[in-house]
Design a protein that fits this description.
- By secondary structure, the protein is α+β, with helices and mostly antiparallel strands.
- It folds into two domains: 233 residues, PmbA/TldD superfamily (PmbA/TldD fold), CATH 3.30.2290.10; 216 residues, no CATH class.
- Helix content is 24%, strand content 35%.
- The protein has a six-stranded antiparallel β-sheet with strand order 3-2-1-4-5-6. A five-stranded mixed barrel has the order 7-12-13-14-17. Strands 10-9-8-11-16 form a five-stranded mixed β-sheet, with no helix packed on it.
- A hairpin with a 4-residue loop joins strand 4 and strand 5.
- The relative contact order is 0.13.
- GO terms for molecular function: metallopeptidase activity.
- This is Peptidase PmbA.
């Protein structure tokens, strides 16, 4: 029996909540206009959720949340002020607008300040299939977490302890409105089940885990399967070795590979660029990756983890390339950073939407076979990345590979290189995409990195 599908949905009141938030946002915009603001924008959100945690078969925490937030930003010409509240009483809302206006009147002019161009506002709002609420009771959530942990603990005698298991469900409704007349309304849901286990004894203990997450509950993995995966990963780490210092091929497992894409995104984001704190300054139309490599942004993907028809400023999103044939096509900009750079927004206020990285190889097994000998990285530690120079040095763990086969676990090592060289040195991207992220990328093979160990 699939325990994930047993709960009947309750009455859905999300549309009524959206209407209420829409009314609040319009009143706040009118109030800002009455107080002399030349432009204004309002963000309203309401979140509900349930999060439970168990450990060693016992309940640790049960937390139900019901949060809301109202943020108001006003512009007096090119002077900006912002204020926020969680109190929906009219007196509090009026005080929030007054506070934002007072702040704006005392700030300096900023030539880049202001709303996005009104001509860029979204006018079409397709259903992106992001709303799948799960009316999960605390008892049912605990059963899911307990089933997950139990399956992992009982699967292997070397599992000696547990760091616990969890189950959670969350839903959010939000409204963004501005004085251009734009009103955007959004509903989203997110659910997860996971556990972390401990194998071995004493100084030889190892910890690892796994989780499943999705917008819709039917897309979650079975809790027992999650527990078994956590146990397999934990036991595989027992009796690790270090490595001698040298240069080797490095295969980043899919769940680690997305961090490499994250470093790219940070380097081509407007904030880093206008502050001149990026190793990729003036890099549009520059070959950064091999010719076969590509990244697309797909904000209108149905049931995508970061799908939206508009960005954080109401600008209409669209499918577009970030990398084509290895060449950087554009930066990642909201209207403020775009003005600072003399460019136009790329509809990325608030960040990127769904990214798809082009694959040129098969699954992880075929990539290991093609690599032959090298390091498979399944864990990264530390923040040793210099955004200005691109220098990269992080603690790592994983597995040593010979003749295309994993031969032993590895930890206590550091992997190092320079991101520009690492990007150019990517030899393969796999099809083994980790679907738990809005960055859809498989394992990434980098042809050469320095590995420093204790041997």
């Amino acid at each position: 029996m699939n325990v994930i599908s047993t709960q009947n949905p309750a009455v859905d009141d999300s549309q009524q909540r959206l209407e209420r938030l829409t009314g609040i946002s319009q009143r706040l915009l009118e109030r800002a206009r009455a107080m002399g603001a030349s432009q204004a924008e309002v963000s309203c959100s309401e979140d509900r959720g349930l999060d439970v945690n168990v450990r060693l078969g016992e309940v640790e925490t049960v937390e139900a949340t019901h949060d809301r937030g109202i943020a108001v930003t006003v512009y007096f010409g090119q002077r900006k002020g912002s204020a926020s509240t969680a109190d929906l009483q009219e007196s509090s809302l009026e005080a929030t607008v007054a506070q934002a206006c007072a702040i704006a009147r005392h700030t300096e002019d900023d030539p880049a300040a202001g709303l996005a161009d009104p001509a860029l506002m979204a006018t079409e709002f397709p259903d992106l299939d992001s709303w799948h609420p799960w009316e999960l009771s605390a008892e049912q959530a605990l059963d899911l977490a307990l089933a997950c942990e139990s399956a992992g603990r009982q699967s292997d005698s070397r599992i000696s302890n547990s760091d616990g298991a969890s189950a959670s469900t969350a839903q959010s409704v939000s409204v963004y409105a501005n004085s251009h007349g734009f009103i955007g309304r959004d509903r989203s849901s997110h659910h997860s089940i996971g556990c972390a286990l401990i194998a071995g004894q004493g100084d030889g203990m190892q910890r690892d885990g796994w989780y499943t997450s999705a917008i819709a509950r039917e897309d979650l993995d079975d809790p027992a399967a999650v527990g078994l995966r956590a146990a397999e990963r934990t036991v595989a780490r027992l009796q690790p070795r270090s490595l001698p210092t040298g240069e080797v091929q490095v295969l980043f497992a899919a769940e680690m590979a997305r961090s490499l894409i994250g470093h790219l995104l940070s380097a081509v984001s407007g904030g880093a660029l206008y502050r001149r704190a990026s190793f990729l300054l003036n890099s549009v139309d520059t070959q950064l990756f091999p010719q076969w490599f590509g990244i697309e942004e797909l904000p209108l993907l149905r049931r995508g983890l970061r799908s939206s028809s508009y960005d954080g400023e109401g600008v209409a999103t669209r499918n577009s390339a970030l990398i084509t044939d290895g060449v950087l096509q554009r930066y990642i900009l909201g209207s403020y950073s775009a003005r600072k750079l003399g460019l136009q927004t790329t509809a990325n206020a608030g960040g990127v939407h769904n990214l798809k990285v082009k694959a040129n190889a098969g699954d992880r097994a075929s990539m290991l076979s093609g690599m032959g000998t090298g390091l498979l990285v399944t864990e990264l530690m530390g923040q040793g990345v210099n955004g200005i120079t691109g220098d990269y040095s992080r603690g790592a763990g994983g597995f040593w590979v010979e003749n295309g086969q994993i031969v032993y676990p590895v930890d206590g090592i550091t992997i190092a290189g320079n991101l520009k060289q690492m990007f150019a040195g990517i030899e393969a991207v796999g099809t083994d995409v980790d679907k738990r992220s809005h960055v859809a990328v498989g394992s990434i093979l980098v042809g050469k990195m320095t590995v420093a160990g204790n041997d």
